[in-house]
Protein: FMN reductase
Amino acid sequence: MSTKPHILVVFGSTRQGRRGEVVVDWLRDKLATRTDATFEFVDLREIPLSFFDSPASPARGSIAPEAAQWAEQVDRADGFIFVTPEYNHSYSAVLKNAIDHLYMQWVHKPGAIVSYGGMSAGYRAAEQLRLVLVELKMVPIREQMGISLVPGVVPHIADQPDSPGGAFLERAYSGMMTELLWWANALIPARQRDREQQS
Ligand SMILES: Cc1cc2nc3c(=O)[nH]c(=O)nc-3n(C[C@H](O)[C@H](O)[C@H](O)COP(=O)(O)O)c2cc1C
Structure:
């Protein structure tokens, strides 16, 4: 059985004409070269969830039937990379809704953030998402990637690896992955111990 962490990459834009696909594609190419974890990508367009309106909290284990597949995907992940746009200084509503549909499936797992947006590279969205991850008993990874989609702004997705912007992105990516996988590896046995004690 593989002991490598399984990381779920959650793409948080479902907008018509969304521009975040360049960010996801960039990340997909980077992750494809790694052998230290397995990676699965989920596009929230393919997880059609209505606005969360369950009478009971998912923190008590109640999952809406429509969220069953989403719950299973999140449950088997050992960590996450949230790819989120910045909308009005926050992350997307569709990502928040997908998060709120679950609870136990997030607990004691690390979450890294790749934000993107205008001049601020989505950093304000990332800061707000961090607060929510803490409430889910997750470990928000300090090292993060912020990518501007405005041409000429550093760092930009199209920057060459040997340019200042490209080198910055590479360092940010490398630092984020090191920390994410450190925590993912550390928490796998910890969650296993919990399961054994509960059974
Ligand atoms: C409703 C809305 C609000 C936005 N608010 C911000 C913002 O607060 N800060 C920012 O840098 N960019 C903002 N933008 C620009 C987006 O980050 C940019 O359009 C990005 O491409 C959105 O991701 P998407 O195209 O994948 O949905 C906003 C865009 C939209 C549509």
Notes: The chain has one domain: 6-56+68-198.
